[in-house]
Amino acid sequence: xxPRHPRENGTDPGNGNGDIVPxxxxxxxxxEEFSSQIIEEAAQQSVVLRLGNTVPMGTRITHMPVxxxxxxxxxxxxxxxxxxxxxxxxxxxxxxxxxxxxxVTAIPDAMVDDTDINLWAWVRPRLAEAIAIAIDNAVLxxxxxxxxxxxxxxxxxxxxxxxxxxxxATINDAMGQVEDQGLAVxxxxxxxxxxxxxxxxxxxxxxxxxxxxxxxxxSIDTLYGVPVAYDPFPRxxxxxxxxxxxxNLIIGVRQDIRFQLDSSGVLVDEDGRVVVxxxxxxxxxxxxxxxxxxxxxxxxxQREPDGATPFAKAELVEEHPRRARGRSSRSQPRQQQPxxxxxxxxxxxx
Length: 350
Fold this sequence. Notes:
The protein has one domain (23-68, 93-320, 332-349). The protein has ten helices and 15 strands. The protein has helices at residues 35-45, 47-51, 109-113, 119-141, 153-156, 167-179, 195-198, 278-281, 321-325, 337-349, and strands spanning 53-56, 61-67, 91-97, 99-108, 158-160, 187-191, 210-215, 218-223, 226-231, 241-244, 249-262, 266-268, 274-277, 283-296, 311-314. The strands form four sheets. Strands 5-15-10-6-9-8-7 form a seven-stranded mixed beta sheet. It has a four-stranded mixed beta sheet with strand order 1-11-14-4.
């Protein structure tokens, strides 16, 4: 079997002219066609990419025309020859600016050289998860978001739902807040801990609140007949449930996820200090990056001609796991856990 890296047998690892190209000896570790798997896996893990309206971007800055007035039609007063009613079809522009999301990691050369380790299978899902978390945090809550993204994210552009007597009433009110503005609910996003209060919950007709639907890509969870996506929300979030017309959340994709390997670069911290030297520490640096944009549209509807609010939010778990439990619950005696679990499910059975 030939050596994995050209340097091992003295061949040129560069561009054919004797020039050393950093990382060129590692291009065979991760085939380029696998970069599409990163974006697919990131989409599967990100509630934003699953529910939002993703559109390709031809340039870094893209202007999207959106209606600013709701058209109205009228009846002619006479059978023939009457002047037809005029309606305004004003259009405005929403600007989408592609921003870069990236991550750099260091992979020990021992892993790269070890043929028994499927390096790509080990790294790929972790990179996809990191990108999915960054996208969701920025778009849903505005955490560490670029300045061109909606300020405060979806949470700042959502109506606060009225807390009902139980979780069913609260969800129904949240969906009603959107529908009352003339918009159809297309999906919901919830913190992973919300599942604990939804399992086994039935509506007034006795039907399970949670369901499943078959699509071309497989089975998806549903809530009141529309898709629901779960993700561990950040501790700094102010809601654990969002519902709305997600086609008004526009995610621009300027550049699919790409990667670059480098066996001689360095990693530095914010103070400029070298944290990792690939050459000195016998590691390979892997950089992954992509470019996304985000815009939230306040669509004009018959009921809200000045623009509707397409989302509603709620706190479905009174003592949310990311706030109430945290790590402290793990230190509690095991015999106390069943009691806590029963208390968490109490709102669902009320």
